[in-house]
UniProtKB/TrEMBL annotation:
<keyword id="KW-0032">Aminotransferase</keyword>
<dbReference type="GO" id="GO:0009396">
    <property type="term" value="P:folic acid-containing compound biosynthetic process"/>
</dbReference>
<dbReference type="GO" id="GO:0000162">
    <property type="term" value="P:L-tryptophan biosynthetic process"/>
</dbReference>
<dbReference type="InterPro" id="IPR015890">
    <property type="entry name" value="Chorismate_C"/>
</dbReference>
<dbReference type="InterPro" id="IPR005801">
    <property type="entry name" value="ADC_synthase"/>
</dbReference>
<dbReference type="Pfam" id="PF00425">
    <property type="entry name" value="Chorismate_bind"/>
</dbReference>
<keyword id="KW-0808">Transferase</keyword>
<protein>
    <submittedName>
        <fullName>Aminodeoxychorismate synthase component I</fullName>
        <ecNumber>2.6.1.85</ecNumber>
    </submittedName>
</protein>
<dbReference type="InterPro" id="IPR005802">
    <property type="entry name" value="ADC_synth_comp_1"/>
</dbReference>
<dbReference type="InterPro" id="IPR019999">
    <property type="entry name" value="Anth_synth_I-like"/>
</dbReference>
<feature type="domain" description="Chorismate-utilising enzyme C-terminal">
    <location>
        <begin position="128"/>
        <end position="382"/>
    </location>
</feature>
<dbReference type="GO" id="GO:0046820">
    <property type="term" value="F:4-amino-4-deoxychorismate synthase activity"/>
</dbReference>
Length: 394
């Protein structure tokens, strides 16, 4: 974002922002974050009927030279898809769209964490047995030919009574991220340490990087390398990843100039402190007539958090999961008036509500040869960025 670079002031810890604010980690600016504060307006859509007007306000704000920062909740996908128009959008505790409209953000060198992040105890909404019941239903749909893959998720519940920005600073020591951050625009606060880029666009060039395929880190270097190599060669992980690559290529093709969609790399391993993840790259050139609403209607939610085919997977998810996902599996990001756009996929993302109640969701992709116990264990491994250890079974 060019405007931010023109403003050299760097905040210090004593200048911690007052609500409402958004802090967004900018992976292209040498470890600096962007601080958005004192919004000129807050744009919110809580129901499907509010979405079109919210996108119009967002477009109008960028035309006025304002920057947008905030999130789109997962259930926005139901509000945007015509097939779901006659059905009620699942009721989440957080908005479908929540963005602040700000003047140029300020670069902020996040102060180093004063202490390690606390290990927050989490209680899964589902036991292994309860998860297995839903898992088996997913397998039935797969073998019936309804879907190839379903991303099944569930919430874990805990408490945190401290400052959300301090928690983010501590957690990012465990898991550095390119595009994470904190959204504190309303009473609840969203903290996102997602390693997955949803899409980024500059000058109508758009790039996506789906993440599918997970392996736990090894204790010793040789074991760690062996686990990463196993992930590279694992047919199940490669199949999961390729399904989502094909899905995103199809989504992008409806928005892109004909002939510009291409895969840049396949099955690339990215390593984080607690796990290895498999990613692939896709890029395209957006048509000049694509609006913000078109962009989200065409791409949202990311196929890596639904399954394939996307619409049928979303129907099954709505029927099987025990609660709306909210911000989790949505997208957190920023939109500049010059068209520079960056969003993550809001995994490794938690919401802290007034009073200290906290929800952190986890999930995994189920395919024909998945095993229930392994998938449930993978879900709990993904919560270790917050728990520091295995989540305790309910």
């Amino acid at each position: 974002m060019q405007d931010a670079a023109e403003r050299p002031a760097v905040l210090t810890q004593k200048d911690a922002p007052a609500r409402p604010y958004v802090v967004f980690e900018d992976g292209r600016s040498d470890g600096q974050a962007l601080l958005f504060e004192e919004p000129e307006e807050i744009i919110v859509a809580r129901a499907a009927k509010d979405v079109a007007a919210a996108f119009e306000r967002m477009e109008a704000a960028t035309r006025r030279g304002l920057h947008l920062a905030g999130y789109a909740g997962y259930e926005l996908g139901y509000a945007l898809e015509p097939k779901f128009a006659a059905q009620a959008t699942p009721d989440a505790q957080t908005p479908l769209l929540l963005f602040g409209a700000f003047r140029a953000p300020r670069p902020w060198s996040l102060p180093p964490a004063e202490s390690a992040a606390p290990n927050i105890a989490l209680s899964p909404a589902w036991t292994q047995e309860e998860y297995t019941q839903r898992f088996n239903t997913c397998r039935d749909y797969i073998f019936a030919g309804d879907v190839y893959q379903i991303n099944l998720t569930f919430p874990l519940y805990g408490r945190y009574d401290g400052d959300a920005l301090s928690l983010y600073r501590g957690l990012r020591k465990r898991q550095p991220v390119a595009y994470g951050g904190v959204v504190a625009l309303e009473a609840e606060t969203v903290v996102s340490l997602s390693p997955e880029v949803f899409f980024e666009a500059q000058d109508r060039d758009i790039r996506a990087r789906p993440m599918k395929g997970t392996a736990q880190r090894g204790v010793m270097p040789t074991e760690d390398m062996a686990r990463a190599q196993y992930l590279v060669e694992d047919e199940k992980s490669r199949a999961e990843n390729l399904m989502i690559v094909d899905l995103l290529r199809n989504d992008l093709s409806r928005l892109a100039v004909v002939g510009t969609v291409k895969v840049t790399d396949l099955f690339t391993i990215q390593t984080y402190p607690t796990l290895h993840q498999m990613t692939s790259g896709i890029e395209a050139r957006l048509r000049d007539d694509v609006t913000l609403k078109d962009l989200f209607t065409g791409l949202f939610p990311c196929g890596s958090v639904t399954g394939a085919p996307k619409i049928r997977a979303m129907e099954i998810i709505r029927d099987l999961e025990c609660a709306a996902r909210g911000v989790y599996c949505g997208a957190l990001g920023v939109i500049a008036p010059d068209g520079d756009i960056r969003f993550n996929v809001a995994i490794r993302t938690l919401t802290i509500f007034p009073g200290g109640d906290l929800v952190c969701n986890v999930g995994s992709a189920i395919v024909a040869d998945s095993r229930a116990r392994e998938e449930y264990e993978e879900c709990l491994i993904k919560a270790r960025f917050l728990t520091g250890a295995r989540a305790t079974s309910a």
